[in-house]
Amino acid sequence: MPDRTAPESPAPESGVSASSAPDAPAPYFAPAKVNLGLSVRSARADGYHELHSLMVPLALGDDLRIAPAETLSLEVRGADLPSDERNLVYRAARAYLDAAQLSQGARITLEKSLPVASGLGGGSSDAATTLMALARLYPARLDLHALARTLGADVPFFLLGRAAVAQGIGEILTPLPVPRTPLVLVNPGVAVSARDAYHWLDTEEGFTPPLDIDAILTSLQDGRPVPYLNALQSGVAARHPAIGEVLRALADAGLRAPLMSGSGSTCFALAATDSQAHAVAQALQAQHPAWWVRATSTL
Q1: Contact in structure between 156 and 165 (CB atoms under 8 Å)
Q2: Which residues form the signal peptide (predicted)?
Q3: Is position 27 annotated in a ligand binding site?
Q4: Whether pLDDT at 12 is above 50
């Protein structure tokens, strides 16, 4: 899909857009994210992990169209995904409608542009966007953040619509300004389960210290190199050699700070300019036709 500089006709702090006709499907943009650092501090007794991460939304993502309807339905285009309660978008919609005690439904179309199970937060963003869209379509006095936490650790982040430091299991969010930064995303076509990535880290006891957020922000502003950390990267790369190949290709192309995002398998690296990002993406796509490659930027 084309790169975006901002969500289409955004509502304040929501990243969603309204339709002019009440019963027509309204378009909503669900941005991807990258982790500009992911430290896993420890394992918790409840099976989750204590995290320290800098998460930033991107100017590309998935698209949804949502219209009022008598019942709830979901159509997925662009990916082989279920359209029932196994889909996080469907579960988010059902959670909102039930919490608001509504008899109405919604007709939802999800256009997937992001790779599935890729570390870009696509499913979580789609779910958060669904919550915000239904809150606009059917206003109710509900705590969307509480609903989001029941759907997944990354879902609350996408309600913010801006960069944030994430702690706890990802639900403790501290917004902060991050300079707009061009980057290149590459996914080698490998799907990585987050459950597996964290299991491999637990097995290797690869827990890491807190991120130096100030150093990362300074590096984004002046280009000075700092160690960009993803505690999950070594375990995933050891089992999926394509990750290492992508990271080397990004570095060889002259980009900064190549890193895996989240639990993988998408990797990214920072560019000095938009033109450099687009040139590198074009070259990498030509060299590796099977890879999913995009030039974009942080929002």
Answers
A1: no
A2: none
A3: no
A4: no
Q: Which of 263, 211, 254 is nearest to 234 (CA)?
A: 263
Long-range contact set of residues 240-246: C-beta below 8 Å, sequence gap at least 24: 240/188, 240/190, 240/192, 240/264, 240/265, 242/188, 242/189, 242/190, 243/188, 243/190, 243/267, 245/188, 246/186, 246/187, 246/188, 246/291
| Residue-averaged pLDDT of the chain | 91
Rounded distance between C-alpha atoms, residue 266 and residue 13, angstroms: 26
> pTM of the prediction?
0.90
Q: Is 115 annotated as a binding-site member?
A: yes
Is 33 one of the annotated active-site residues of the chain? yes
Active site residue 112: no
Residues 143-168: tens digit of each pLDDT:
999 999 999 999 999 999 999 999 99
Catalytic residue among 33, 63, 112, 126: 33
Low-confidence winner among 107-111, 170-174, 283-287 (lowest mean pLDDT): 170-174
Please name each of the domains of the chain with its CATH number.
Answer: 26-175 (3.30.230.10), 182-297 (3.30.70.890)
Q: What angle do CA 166, 171, 175 make, to 5 degrees?
A: 45
Q: Which of 3, 84, 154, 252 is catalytic?
A: 154
CA distances from 56 to 31, 65, 274 (A): 10, 24, 17
Q: Using only C-alpha atoms, what is the Rg of the chain? A: 19
Indicate the Cα dihedral angle 74, 77, 81, 84, nearest 10°.
10
Looking at the chain, the whole-number percentage of residues with pLDDT higher than 70 is 93
